[in-house]
TrEMBL record:
Organism: Arcobacter nitrofigilis (strain ATCC 33309 / DSM 7299 / CCUG 15893 / LMG 7604 / NCTC 12251 / CI) (Campylobacter nitrofigilis)
Electron transport recorded as keyword: no
Protein name stated in the entry: Transcriptional regulator, GntR family
Family to which the UniProt record says this protein belongs: In the C-terminal section; belongs to the class-I pyridoxal-phosphate-dependent aminotransferase family.
Domain (HTH gntR-type) ranges: 10-77
GO molecular function, one term: pyridoxal phosphate binding
Keywords: DNA-binding, Pyridoxal phosphate, Transcription, Transcription regulation
Amino acid sequence: MYIINQTMKTPLHIQLYEELKKDIIENYKVGDKLPSIRKLGSIYNLSRTTVENAYSQLVVEGYIESYPRKGYLVEDINVSTFKPKINLDNKKEKKETWIYDFNPIGLSKNTFPIKVWKRLFNKYIDEKTDLGAYPNGQGEENLRIEIAKYINKARGVNCNAHQIIIGCGFTNSMELLAKLLDEKYDTLSIENPGYIMAANTFKSHKYEIKKVSIDKQGIKIDELEKQDSRLVYVTPSHQYPTGVTMPISNRYKLLEWAEKNDGLIIEDDCDSELNYVNRPIPSLQGLDKSGRVVYIGTFSKSLSASLRISYMVLPEHLLDLYHNHYAKSFSTVPLMVQIILEKFMKEGHWERHFRRIRTMNRKKHKLMKSLLIKNLGSSMKIEAEGAGLSILINPTVNINIEKLKKLAKKEKIKLYFTKDTCGGDWDTIRMGFVIFNEDEMKVAVEQFSTIWYKAME
Ligand SMILES: Cc1ncc(COP(=O)(O)O)c(C=O)c1O
């Protein structure tokens, strides 16, 4: 007996369709005949059109087929007939909730240009968009052209669209690179402290990882020279995590090292355009004359971390190798996202958006700095500031860090420590500022200072 409720908001044909579908899945065999439209209508007091609509939906979805002189017969629907062997009651994953979250990598959801994005979607995604095809492995050419223009102008990167490979985030680009280079290199030198994901990706591809210290000039080139390595990962324009900028003299030395050793430099330039004090310094890739730099950038720090779009620029001499390895691969970034981003850039929205974000971040950075000074005074030292999405601090007094962490958890204040993403000994607390509006930031820093003083010994 089917339950059809004439007073429910759900249309009658949908109710009937749901009941029939359940019945077919649970009780019918292939070739079984369904009741005629007239019979079903009269049993449940439904109009002919209502029953016809329910049957047509089942036909469209392949559950039944209409045969002349036979009526509606059940089709082979083996995909839906599996009896689940696991309990499908979806238990929600436990998510910790925070009242104050000093997130140093995510962006505020309010800054994503959603109206423009939706407008571009409506304008450019339509029946002509080939959503049946796999997207170009290297990324859509038109998007690559826009990215090439942008990094050329904003970061001094010398490249053409054919050198760019679009990926779904830094790690994806690094994965690809690790596979590409594994016949030529077996060791990766990385900055210490440095971004743990860079090391982890290459480690998982069996590269030996060698750490090179950094000082106020960035990676220590004399130390690098002593290592038996020809491949190095650096963040020269805004060292992660210390914030150091590698001066031009050292950039040339690093390039010389690469030339002398038939080496390669991986330049991670993830947030270098977000400089609030100085003009952003041009990329290392832009100084390179002999194809010694692979450049990686991302849209995560100023547009959206959830879109998952990064780009990698390969030197010309690696392109054949790339095409040999990846000729049959498909892009990891959905076509729709690529098309909209291309139009977003081409129509000038990206430039406007970026200026707006940088101005907004600059103000938030200034506010965070003044709030930290006001609330924590000389009990803390600023270790890195002036760029990116966070200010890094350390205590100058005795703070019991374990106690601070416990208090933070109790008060639902989410803190971020450099050690978690860098390994090693160097540690700071990363005070992310872009996620807050001004009022939220004031309260958040006040609450943080309360637990800070409680953790003081
Ligand atoms: C130094 C560094 N490089 C790269 C990235 C990753 O960017 P993506 O969002 O493209 O994976 C991050 C993320 O925080 C980062 O800190």
